[in-house]
Structure formats: C-alpha cells, structure tokens
Write a structure and sequence with these properties.
CATH class: Mainly Alpha
Number of helices: 10
Strand order of the largest sheet: 1-2
Strand content: under 5%
CATH topology: Four Helix Bundle (Hemerythrin (Met), subunit A)
Helix content: 55-70%
C-alpha cells in the first residue's frame, strides 16, 4: 500500500506548526540577516523565511481554489516523481529558480513576511474546514488527498524551520509527535526513492552497515 495519510491526519497540525514558526520568523536575528546567505545554497535568509511562510499561505490558496474535476489523483510519492526539482541536483535550474523566486519575493522585508504569515494563520482553519477531499497541485498538474497535501506543507514547514534556525544561530523549534511523525515518515519514503530502500533501512537501523547519507533532498 502506498504511503498515505488520508483519513488519519490531525488536520490542526499545519496550523500548530505554522504558529510555532512565527516565533522564529519574528526573531530579530532573521531581520538582521535578511539579505545574507542562508544555510541553503543560493537562498538568502529573507528568501528562506519567505519560503517558509508561503507554506500556510499556499495551503489557504490551494484549499480555497476551484478544484479541476478531471485532475489525476496521485499518491504522495507519485506527486514528487512528477517534480523536476526532486530529481535534479541543487545547482540545477529547476532548483535555483525556486531560490531566486523566493529571494525576489523577500524584497518586501521581514515585516511583510510576518504579515503574510499572520494572514495565513487567520485563514487556515476555515480553509481546512471547508476543503474538499482532494487538493489540486498546479506545479505537478495532479491532485492529492487533502491529508496528503497537508503533510507536504507540514514537511516543508518543519524542514525549512530548521534551515532558518540554523541560518541565524537560533535554537531549533520543538514540534509535537503528531506534527513530526508524518514528516519523518514522508522523508524516509522519499529518501528510499532517492537512495534505495536498502540504503534507508540500513541508514536508519544499522550504523555499521550504513552506506552513507540517505537524505530525501
């Protein structure tokens, strides 16, 4: 059975994770280093913060948009398989264009990104409550089960919150198990897709047989 969280996800997790992120986004160290390089190659601290707050923003936009009736409904893994950036090295245009885009979006400064986040936090509960069972993802021209779509946004939030904390020397955020466990499951499966199931199995269970990094991205 393909990995899915349909019907099992606590749908408040994205709101809780995004609310926790606010303390980091408003940290004065983020604003102070806004135009400096982040821990992610090619992305500024501001660009990274803007990418982070775009996760609940994107959720609100996609959940409230009209859903195409004929969109292919795919699994989580298939959605990533459709993404050019997932298969490309970090210096490929498929990835560098994402960094450049969010660097440009960060031109509004830290206060604008905080405002974007606050607006998304206010709208997210209603967007989730009113969402239909599947969510269209225009980047991959497919639809995911609602809960699977929320887990994608949840994973992006947790991972990029850590990127931002490292970038400015802040302590990592703490998330509860209902937030973390879906994220860890998705990362493990994507890591297996990139490196092989055997590599991830050994990397997670047997240090003496690990063949190297098994990062999903």
């Amino acid at each position: 059975m393909a990995l899915t969280f349909a019907g099992t996800l606590d749908r408040t997790t994205l709101l809780r994770a995004s609310t926790a992120v606010r303390a980091l986004v408003v940290d004065e160290r983020v604003a102070a280093r806004w135009d400096h390089d982040s821990a992610l190659p090619g992305m500024t601290v501001g660009g990274l913060a803007r990418h982070l707050v775009s996760q609940p923003e994107c959720a609100v936009e996609f959940l409230t948009a009209e859903q195409p009736a004929d969109a292919d409904v795919v699994s989580l893994v298939e959605c990533y398989e459709r993404a050019d950036w997932f298969h490309a090295p970090v210096d490929h245009e498929a990835n560098t264009s994402i960094s450049a885009g969010f660097n440009a979006m960060a031109a509004g400064g830290a206060a604008h990104s905080v405002a974007v986040l606050d607006a998304a936090l206010a709208s997210l509960p209603g967007a989730v409550a009113g969402a239909v069972p599947t969510t269209y993802v225009p980047w991959q021209d497919c639809a995911l089960a609602l809960d699977d779509f929320l887990v994608v946004r949840l994973m992006e939030t947790v991972v990029h919150a850590d990127d931002l904390a490292v970038s400015v020397g802040a302590d990592p955020l703490t998330f509860d198990d209902e937030v973390l466990h879906p994220v860890l499951a998705l990362l493990a499966v994507l890591g297996a897709r990139r490196h092989s199931a055997t590599a991830v199995l050994r990397g997670l269970s047997r240090a003496e047989r690990s063949t190297g990094p098994v990062a999903a991205f």
